[in-house]
Write a structure and sequence with these properties.
Layout (H helix, E strand, L loop, with lengths): L9 H17 L11 H6 L2 H11 L2 H8 L14 H10 L4 H18 L4 H17 L3 H15 L14 H9 L3 H7 L5 H4 L11 H8 L12 E3 L11 H16 L7 E7 L5 H11 L3 E5 L11 H14 L5 E5 L3 H4 L16 H10 L3 E6 L8 H4 L4 E5 L4 H14 L11 H7 E2 L2 H14 L3 H19 L2 E2 L16 E3 L4 H16 L12 E6 L6 H11 L4 E5 H4 L6 H16 L2 E5 L14 H16 L3 E6 L7 H4 L4 E6 L3 H12 L5 H8 L6 H11 L8 H15 L10
Parallel strand pairs: 2-5, 2-6, 3-4, 4-5, 10-13, 10-14, 11-12, 12-13
Antiparallel strand pairs: 1-3, 7-8, 9-14
Helix pairs in contact: 1-6, 1-8, 1-9, 3-6, 8-9, 9-10, 13-14, 19-20, 19-21, 21-22, 26-27, 29-31, 31-32
Amino acid sequence: MARYKNIKRTASVRHAIKFWWNIVKNYDGIVYDQDFFDLVAYNLKRDEVAAIIRGNLSEKELKPLVDAKVEQPLELNRDNIGFMLKRIWNEKPLRKGCRVVLKIMRDRILRNLVPSEEDVRFEHRFAALCKFLGLDKVESSLFMFMYVRSATVFDDLPESEDCSNRPLYYSMAIDRSYPEVLQAMSRQGRLMRYNCMTSEYWFNQAEFGGYFEGMDASPLNERYYRADESEVLPWNFFGKLARDDGAVLKEMLTARREGGRLNVLFYGAPGAGKTSFAHTLASEAGLKSYDLLQGEAEGKNISAETRMAGIQIFNERMVSGGNVLVIDEADELLRTTGGMFGARARGGSEKGVINTILDGMKLPAIWISNAPAEDMDESVRRRFDYSVHFHTLTLAQREKIWRNNIRRLDLGALIPEASAAALAERYETSAGGITMVLENVKKLNPDSSHAAELVERIMRPHCELMHSVIQDGKGKPAADYSLDGLNIKGDVGLDRIVEAVRNFQGECGGKAQSSQADRPRMNLLLWGPPGTGKSEYVKYLGDILKTKVVVKMGSDLLDKYVGGTEERIAAAFAEAEAEKAILFLDEIDGLLQSRARADHSWEVTQVNELLHQMENFDGVMVGATNFFDNLDQAVLRRFTFKIEFGYLDNAGKRTFFERMFGTKLNEGEATRLDAVANLAPGDFRTVRQSLYYLGNAVDNFMRIGELEKEAAIKRGARSAEIGF
């Protein structure tokens, strides 16, 4: 049964009648579905139709149909309109006469249609849309035909619904040659590239239905892109980025002020200032920047297909020169599909489509993505003329952003510039986060005495939302931490390791390494049983050397996808190098198990990646493990110092007992403590925490008893005293 739509606008019906008549003229085959004549049935009464038939076809001509025995006989006074016209059309000798009848019906329907003001507006909207899209006559006719098929009762093909027949059918409907229509409906044609029709040649109702119906009155260009009117940041705001990459890019953009393809990619960590830099760069080069839209005013996301259409429309309309398109959040557009045999499954665009768009650009475009480069196919990556990898902001960069925003917003009276360093160290957030917080502080205008508290109150939930780190002292060693008492086995003590690392950092800072043919790296391996002080020593090392420590657990770097672990390892080293930080890989044995015992190829490749990074890292890397024997032998050779942390000897036990509990041991207590085997500094901390709230009721007898329980647990023995 046909799906009827009550369309009050006569313009749609006029166009539908025109296309329908073209098919009647050009088609000479069998009509399989009587719904093909619904336009007549919807606009004329049965008596009118019967009268026109009787007036133009004689009884003799109609007699074979009236007296039919095999098929249902024709009854003009009782049959529905579609059935009558189908029976007459399919009687080959009557087809010429049927066309005469249908022409009379066409003319009568058109005379009955009274144009309205809405019809005029409809025609103006359609003409404006075709002009905006640059459609030629064939494309415009096809576009209108696809629309009226979706908006009126003109719903059915005269023959089968096979998709491959549609271009031929459409050529009959718009009365143009088949080659012309086939070209206009191809993947390279504007109708497909601009998302006017679906891949099955239907009208794209979701994209243009609202505009045709007059429900979307927004300017046509603002459906896809919009001129950037925001205040751009000063060029010197971006420091080294502006001086290095920015200088080259400014020249490249300036050379294309009059147009010309230039694809630039900004990719990497979110919130690192990519979009702000893009707009400032365009301004510095004397170009007007336009943003490709990501969402509609109603709050709906714009599909990737629509955004790709927008890029191509901008590319055709704005080619006159002086413009640059900023394509923010381009991850989905650039990420090509994949995901077989353990590779990362990624949703995205077809490789061929995005490559065609990149190759066809006639003006500069800056593509911005938070995704790693590996998410893009190599064929996509090599089409970029220049790329900038934005890493997570370093401490120095965050400090500069705090300072620049305090100046820009004139907040010096509330938040002194001198506090920028402390704020940058405390909040490991993005440039956008810093700007958001300070702009809110500006609007709220608190008393200077409450400004710092307001920054904390706004920044803390933001950091929690974005999973950004707030440094609250947990990365510092304990207040009573000391190297005294640790059982370090070997000739090089921990204090000498501190000096060695300090000397290494001095050489790096002074660039002395350039004169060294074989200057060793500074890779430290700390190994020994759990709780012996390895992690705490790394905190101490960072604190005494005033160097940030980037901590990565082995489990943080493992990825379930093939190649993912290698990416995370490389990113960890890149982060530490950018921050000029100590990279601490805790539980490193999960990454560095012997390749001789590897069961899978990816276990070998992740060890190889770590070896490569260790060889090429210019900073200090510290690895810690409880399982020294499991490590790959080639990896062990890459460590400059291998430091074993053992269980405490008797002197160490007494030192930690007196430091942790703030009490002295008598001779009997000391002898009893000496007898407790396999004690580590962590055991003393565990006991101190477990007894903390018992107050003065705690004595050395109880403390040593709890330490004995900790030692017994390690041995896997449970005495009666440990029971529940």
